[in-house]
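Tutorial, part two.
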Amino acid sequence: MRKDDLESKLAHLACWRGPVTLAPLKGGLTNLSYVADDGREKFVVRCGADIPVHHVFRDRERAASVAAFEAGLSPEVVHAEPGIMVLRFIDGRTFGEADLATNIGRIVPLLKTCHAEVGRRVRGPVNAFWVFHVIRDYVRLIDADPRYMALADRLERAQVPMPTVFGHHDLLPGNFMDDGKKLWLIDWEYGAFGTAMFDLANLSSNGAFGEAEDASLLDAYFEGKVSGDLRRAFEAMKAASALREALWAMVSDVHLKTPGVDYTAHAREYLRRFEQLMARS
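Running the prediction step on this input gives:
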């Protein structure tokens, strides 16, 4: 759909209580977003089709978003239809990369609530997320370096049994918002059942955590009960998270090409992080 046609459609959604103005919201890597103001309240409008190559299905994102709101983590969904979701606006700032490490004490309770509560509230079909499957799928999809398959197998063998929980799986800095009183977790495209280990490793990889930050994160989440096997599993998952992010960008560069997004630079940065993490293992 052309941008003009999309904006005309958005301006006439049934949820508005008055004439609406739309302002583009920058930062989305896979969708278009707007801040909408109907004269009484502001909202965020997320627009995007399913993205099968990334295992993203908007009905499942919507279900996860509703459950996350009910768990107190995310803004309320006030309207949804195919390809469009309207949420209440949060007047706050999104995190930068450095904010992740300095807010471990605030983020861990958020993740614990996510893992304990969202899965109990989500309704309808939902995804499963296992990063090693995602890596293998991406490698086959774009015929990427086959050594990534063997490395995924190696990292997968380092994992330890953990309970199944509902995770976010996309803990980039921009998906945390601070309104000055509360920390919010937004954008549930990759919300799915998995294990807590990926969310922890994903947070660490995206925040470029060092050993001290990793120790603080694990000690806070597991309340000081961190075995050697658990720590090794975390380190392997952290490398897998970086590799998945790099491959995600490579796939996006072929299949999405969202205007204004430099997928090549994103892939390059996360491959650097991946190689650095593998050199430590």
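The CA atoms of residues 108 and 221 lie 6 Å apart. In part three we will examine how such features are distributed along the chain.
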